[in-house]
Amino acid sequence: MPSMTMVQAIQDALRVALREDPRVVVLGEDVGKNGGVFRVTEGLQAEFGAERVADTPLAENGIVGGAIGMALYGLKPVAEIQFVDFIYPAFDQIVSELAKMRWRSAGQYGCPVVVRAPYGGGIKGGLYHSQSPEAYFCHTAGLTVVIPSTPADAKGLLLSALEGEDPVIFLEPKRLYRTTKEEVPEGRHRVPIARARTARAGTHCTVLAYGAMVPVSVEAAGTAEARGWSIEVIDLRTLVPLDVETVLASVRKTGRVVIVHEAPRTCGYGAELAALIAEQALTSLQAPVLRVTGYDTPFPYTLEHAYLPDAGRIVRALEHAMSY
Amino acid sequence: MRSLLQSLDLEGRPVGPVPEIPAEDERRLFRHMLRMRLLDQRMLSLQRQGRIGFYGTATGEEAAVTGSAYAARPTDWVFPALRQMGVSLWRGTSIRDIVCQLIGNRGDVLIGRQMPCHFSDRNVHTVAWSSVIGTQLVHAMGAAWAARLSRHDTVCLGYLGDGASSSADFHAAANFAGVFQLPVVFFCQNNQWAISVPLEGQTASESIAVKAMAYGFPGVRVDGNDLLAVVGASREAIDRARAGGGPTLIEAVTFRMGGHSSSDDPTRYRPQEQVAEWERRDPITRFRAYLTAAGRLTDQDVEHWTQELNDEVSVAVAEAEALGPPPIESLFADVYHTMPRHLEEQMRYAIAMGEGAKVEGAFPL
């Protein structure tokens, strides 16, 4: 099995899909000759041609709206938004059109578009290259929201997304694009949508995280181990539909929960998790449900590491949870 | 670019190139415009009686709708907006299907999910649209792109009004279509008013058609109340797109004789003299005069068809009104291809809760 970074693994998934399914096309800004600003699509245009790996004009509503038209007609487009911070010109197309096409046509028209976008901070990208807007998409019926945290998952989840019949918002933690390598199965490797992964098993407290916050949470769990605490880290992988069973089973086992995301706190995805746990697992809880998140501020340039949850902040939350 | 393509003058006399249309098709085209007009009258009346919730007429715009629909092949794809139900009808959707959609009953193809007039019918390649203005144009562009990638000779028609020419999606669609030279025709029914805002409040361009020049493809301005001119302009654009010649923007200059919809009162914002002026240019009257002068249509034909079409609508209304609302579980289907567990749970809950209180009142726009 080859060892790959997340960038390589995503590229591999796209290559497999382009090779095996003639309906797959890739479109976006600079995805062709330049191979994308993060080089995710490097070499794909040379291999599959400029028709199937297309550089578009610079308009996100055109990219996503065009992809919708392609999907309606029977193709499987992968639309790349260069940074998720630039997705808002396409927000209307995603929320009003893409998400609702199947429902509003009563199943006459499906819209299997995969919208890929790097998200999150930690690369000194400043306000408009660092944000985590996943909650907006989770709030929209009809969308599937996927965020991988490892190279193998990134490949397997992307291929599963492309095999599905529905639109998927596929957010890639750019901070993890090149930080680690791992063995990634060759060919049509699949990781199922809507299935969480236990990143680290434990019994005293559950940490719920996704994307770039998974390795940070695992690091925090390692630190906590020195204090004799056994921390379970669940990598959600898919936010909608959520793997409710895995989340609740872990919470019922440990009785304590810390939720970690780098998006702002208020109405972030953690709020949904906390409400779910309160509704369905309250009697298992031994401590308040805690959140470690980005602040309710715009994303900073110089102070980004103060903004982003780190292992230290997570350990402080674990201390608090364990004090009950 | 203010020139206007015309085939007929206001009295129906040929003044420009007349496209070749078989005589039987001419009669069908006239009957179809009449069908649209009568359906609109009856449906607006049903709305006033509270039997349907909302309606937007195409009255005055029948030639633009019918002529462009006629010029397309049945295999071409249509991305409609509010006033193009007539395209679906031309392509074979039944009046009964339309009325069921207007009521939103269990016989509705869309099972009551959309407001009236937001119709789509996959059988005739008309795509589902939202109330957000202009958004369908990028879909038309993308589908045309896909058709070319698939090596099909499908042409996509994206309809818009004058208001949508201001939208970001119009710009993106036209720009992409120009860059990639896609087989798409943008058909603008410039009916002079976007609810209460007149054309000059929408653009400082000398026309809508002229905008095409900036995107690198032809724009044409045609008398939208002249059926033959619309057929001619649409044919030329569609044939060019099919032959690989790229997109066209057609501006069909017409007029919205009624309100934007059943929810507004146009006397609040536009002068009655303008409406009277456009009454003289009525597309049905004009084409009728042309066909009558050519000896291809009689008053008896019109009388007979009027009766026949009114009967057709009456039967459809009676059948549609006999059908109940869609079942509550239909709310939860089609959000996703396969229903996820959280929706299954919400569906079970909703069924247990029943339909709840009946909501009184009307859509407030």
From TrEMBL, chain A:
Pfam family, one: Transket_pyr
Swiss-Prot/TrEMBL GO biological process terms: branched-chain amino acid catabolic process; response to nutrient
UniProt KW Kinase keyword: no
GO molecular function: branched-chain 2-oxo acid dehydrogenase activity
Cofactor(s) the protein needs: thiamine diphosphate
Domain Transketolase-like pyrimidine-binding as annotated: residue spans: 4-179
Protein's name according to its UniProt entry: 3-methyl-2-oxobutanoate dehydrogenase (2-methylpropanoyl-transferring)
Upper classification of the organism: Bacteria, Candidatus Eiseniibacteriota
Automatic annotation (TrEMBL), chain B:
Keyword Oxidoreductase attached: yes
Record-listed E.C. numbers: 1.2.4.4
Highest taxon of source: Bacteria
Similarity field: Belongs to the BCKDHA family.
Protein's recorded name: 2-oxoisovalerate dehydrogenase subunit alpha
Catalytic activity: N(6)-[(R)-lipoyl]-L-lysyl-[protein] + 3-methyl-2-oxobutanoate + H(+) = N(6)-[(R)-S(8)-2-methylpropanoyldihydrolipoyl]-L-lysyl-[protein] + CO2
Keywords: Oxidoreductase, Thiamine pyrophosphate
Matching Pfam families: E1_dh (PF00676)
Residues in Dehydrogenase E1 component domain copies: 32-327
